[in-house]
Specification:
Distance between the termini: 12 Å
Largest sheet: 7 strands, mixed
Order of helices and strands: EHHEEEEEEHEHEHEHEEEHHHEH
Strand content: 15-25%
CATH architecture of the largest domain: 3-Layer(aba) Sandwich
CATH topology of the largest domain: Rossmann fold
Oligomer: single chain
CATH superfamily of the largest domain: NAD(P)-binding Rossmann-like Domain
Structural class: alpha/beta
Radius of gyration: 19 Å
Number of domains: 2
CATH class of the largest domain: Alpha Beta
Number of strands: 14
Helix content: 25-40%
Length: 317
C-alpha cells in the first residue's frame, strides 16, 4: 500500500483540476452510503467521528474517517483530523493511505466553488469568508477558479486576531484581503458570503444579505451546528444542497424547516442535478441563492482518485 503524506496528497489537488473532477464525479454514477456518525465523550472532552465510504464503476473504493473536536481551537490544534484509504473496488485490496485532512479541506472548498459556479452572480467581486480554519484559508483560491472577477476578500472570525493574521497571509500571497470586525456591515457588502466554521449558533442573519448575493454554508454538518439564521432561507431565497443528506444532517436546514422559512420540497436541487443539467441554478442577477453542503464521500473519492492517478496509476490495478 502506497502512503501519501500531506504534501504528496496536496500537490495533485490544485483547484483547476479538482473543481472539474468534482463536477464530473457528481454527473457520474457513484455509490455513496449514508455516513456513520459517532459521538465520543472522554472526560470533559467531546468529539464526533464520521466514517464515510464510497465506490464507483471506475473500480475505486474509499473510506474516510474524520475526527472533529471543536474544543481543539482552545488548544491551538486543528478541529478536524482525517485519514483516507483508497481500495481496488474489484478486489478490496488497499491501494493507498492518504492525508485525509488535505483531501477534506480541498474537496470542501472545491465543492463550494462548484456550487458558486452555478449560483453566484457572474460579476461577483466581493467575497466574505467566515472562519480561519483549513477550509476557510482555501476559499479565495477555490472561488477564483469559477469567479475570476473577485477582487476583494474580507475575512471575519470570532477571534479578531485570527482574521487579521489570515488577511495578512492572503495579502502576502497577492490577494486584496482585509479583516473585518463588523460582521453585519461586511455581509451587506458581500456578493458571496462563505461560512466555513464549526459554529453551533447562527452567525449570518437573513436581512443582512444583499439582493443578488450568494450564501455558501459549508462548515456545519450536524443537526447541532448552525451558521445561518432561519431567515436566511426565507424572503424568496432559492436554496440548493450538495446532497439530499443535507436535509437530515444540517442544523441550518432543520431549523429553517421547523420555523416555516423552508420546505423540503422547496429545495431547488442537489449538486448532482445541477452537474447533470437536470436543474437550473441562478436565473437572475437579483435573486438571492443559498448553498448548503454537509460534504459527501463522493467528493473524497474523486479527490483521492486524482491523487492516485497523478502518480501514473491510471486504474485500480
Amino acid at each position: 500500500m502506497q502512503i501519501f503524506d500531506a504534501a504528496s496528497t496536496r500537490t495533485p489537488l490544485s483547484f483547476d483540476r479538482l473543481v472539474p473532477a468534482l463536477k464530473a464525479a457528481f454527473a457520474a454514477d457513484t455509490t455513496v452510503p449514508l455516513r456513520h456518525v459517532h459521538q465520543v465523550q472522554v472526560g470533559p472532552d467531546a468529539g464526533t467521528v464520521l466514517i464515510m465510504p464510497a465506490w464507483s464503476e471506475a473500480g475505486f473504493m474509499g473510506i474516510k474517517t474524520v475526527n472533529i473536536w471543536p474544543g481543539n481551537s482552545a488548544r491551538g490544534l486543528p478541529g478536524l483530523h482525517a485519514n483516507y484509504i483508497l481500495y481496488d473496488a474489484r478486489t478490496g485490496v488497499p491501494l493507498a493511505l492518504m492525508d485525509g485532512d488535505e483531501i477534506t479541506s480541498r474537496r470542501t472548498a472545491a465543492a463550494a466553488a462548484l456550487g458558486a459556479s452555478f449560483l453566484a452572480r457572474a460579476d461577483a467581486r466581493r467575497l466574505l469568508v467566515l472562519g480561519t480554519g483549513r477550509v476557510a484559508r482555501l476559499l479565495p483560491a477555490a472561488m477564483a477558479q469559477v469567479r475570476p472577477g473577485i477582487d476583494e476578500v474580507m475575512v471575519w472570525n470570532h477571534r479578531p486576531e485570527g482574521a487579521q493574521k489570515l488577511a495578512a497571509q492572503w495579502r502576502a500571497e497577492g490577494v486584496n484581503a482585509q479583516a473585518v470586525p463588523d460582521l453585519q456591515a461586511a455581509v451587506r457588502r458581500a456578493d458571496i458570503v462563505s461560512c466555513a466554521t464549526l459554529s453551533t449558533a447562527p452567525l449570518v442573519q437573513g436581512d443582512w444579505l444583499a439582493p443578488g448575493s450568494h450564501l455558501d454554508l459549508i462548515g456545519s454538518f450536524t443537526p447541532q451546528m448552525r451558521e445561518a439564521d432561519p431567515s436566511c432561507f426565507g424572503g424568496g431565497a432559492r436554496t440548493f444542497v450538495d446532497t439530499e443528506e443535507a436535509l437530515k444532517k444540517s442544523g441550518d436546514l432543520l431549523d429553517a424547516m421547523a420555523g416555516g422559512q423552508l420546505r423540503a420540497d422547496a429545495v431547488q436541487s442537489t449538486l448532482a442535478q445541477l452537474c447533470k443539467g437536470e436543474r437550473t441554478g441562478r436565473t437572475s442577477a437579483e435573486e438571492r441563492t443559498v448553498f448548503k453542503a454537509v460534504g459527501s464521500a463522493l467528493e473524497d473519492l474523486a479527490a483521492a482518485t486524482l491523487v492516485w492517478q497523478a502518480q501514473g496509476k491510471r486504474d485500480s490495478t
